[in-house]
Write a structure and sequence with these properties.
This protein has about 375 residues and is an alpha/beta fold. The chain has 16 helices and twelve strands. A six-stranded parallel sheet has the order 2-1-3-4-5-6, with helices on both faces. A six-stranded parallel sheet has the order 9-8-7-10-11-12, sandwiched between helices. The chain is globular and about 65 Å long.
Length: about 375
């Protein structure tokens, strides 16, 4: 199968979305498929994410036509959800275009609804586009309804797709995977049975990741535990910018690492901590969660999206309601005070994540591709 995968993500194997695309793509190649990519660097448009999501979709149909004229034929085109609408529209006109699978890393409409609900919960300003209309969301919804198949990462997204009328046989849930490096490092660490401590937040320092709730929760826990260390990694901002959110008396115990450039550095960061905190109000299925599980960290996260699919509260981690600072604080404090419990829950997460391989993910993705191809051929 000849596959073209399209996204505006940065072409970077350490980035979240692009790393997931490459890992699944490598597994598809190992299965015998041909995989090509078009990442953000290909598109000659503004660096603004919003403008890219408006301009890039319009370029995709012409690009596919051009590649075909040059002899570059594909059996299937996979397009990131916000970019798919113009291609799906063109396919209605020209059935010779390859079938299209829309890949969602978290449904755009559900993200909008989650942000709106969160801002209202926290009495934050709500813009008119957020409340009523986002062009990128409209594009995404058209693509979801008119593509040949949809791949998404969690059961809540699947339920929403069916709610808006997307047929069940046009939807595939394909979990993310964990690279073997993390699984092996986690196994070695478990055998060593070393004592670990410290809380880790790994992700962009943005509202969606729950930073508004994280700061007061972490601050309270650090005040109660004077030796506790906290790390903020891969946040995209320098230490001076991030630390202004925290009281001066705890800043010396907070390490800020703006960027992580390799799996080895990621593994070293995980190895130094016992708890991963991820209080997002919306996600698809975060790689951070699965990698931390592979490394035996206990995960404290919100009870939504791909986190709810993986974490069973009190069994292999702890979940809290979105925006609930008190519950987040109590969960973190309980684990810091009970390292044996943290280790037990972390080990349960490590056992569960063994099944989350990129080979398994690629098999589901390839099956979705073939379903799209078969359904398209029946229509033609």
């Amino acid at each position: 199968m000849r596959i073209l995968r399209i996204s505006t993500a940065t072409n970077n194997r350490t980035g979240g979305m692009s790393r997931a695309m490459y890992c699944a793509g490598d597994a598809l190649i190992a299965m015998g498929h041909q995989v090509d990519y078009l990442f953000g660097e290909h598109w000659q448009v503004s660096n603004s994410v919003y403008l890219r999501r408006l301009a890039v979709p319009l370029q995709i149909p012409a690009l596919i036509y051009s590649l075909a004229q040059k002899g570059k034929q594909y059996d299937i085109v996979e397009i990131h959800e916000p970019l798919a609408a113009p291609y799906c529209f063109n396919r209605k006109i020209n059935k010779n275009l390859p079938p299209v699978v829309v890949f969602s890393h978290g449904l755009e409409k559900r993200n909008q609804l989650a942000e709106l609900a969160y801002r209202q919960q926290k009495y934050l300003p709500v813009s008119l586009p957020l409340r009523f209309l986002r062009i990128t969301v409209l594009q995404a919804m058209y693509g979801l309804r008119h593509c040949d198949h949809v791949i998404c990462l969690n059961s809540e997204d699947i339920a929403y797709l069916q709610q808006i009328g997307v047929a069940k046989n046009r939807i595939t849930q394909a979990d993310n995977g964990v690279e073997s490096q993390f699984l092996l490092a986690g196994a070695v660490l478990a055998q060593a049975n070393l004592s670990r401590s410290g809380i880790l937040f790994l992700g962009s320092w943005v509202l969606r990741k729950g930073t508004l709730d994280l700061v007061p929760a972490i601050s309270q826990v650090m005040q109660r535990h004077p030796s506790l260390q906290f790390t903020i990694a891969g946040c995209g901002f320098d230490a001076d910018t991030v630390l202004t959110d925290f009281a001066e008396d705890i800043r010396s115990r907070i390490q800020v690492i703006p960027k992580l450039s390799s799996n080895e550095k990621l593994i070293e960061i995980y190895r130094q901590h016992s708890i991963l905190v991820l209080p997002s109000y919306f996600e698809g299925q975060p790689l951070t969660m699965l990698e931390a599980a592979a490394m035996g960290l206990v995960i404290v996260t919100t009870n939504i999206c791909g986190m709810a699919d993986f974490i069973e509260n009190g069994i292999n981690g702890m979940t809290v309601p979105v925006g609930d600072i008190e519950s987040l604080t109590q969960s973190l404090d309980h684990l810091v005070s009970n390292p044996a419990l943290a280790q037990c829950l972390g080990e349960a997460a490590r056992e569960k994540v063994q099944a989350y391989t990129w080979k398994s993910a690629a098999k589901k993705i390839a099956k979705a591709y073939q379903q799209a191809i078969d359904d398209a051929s029946k229509k033609n």
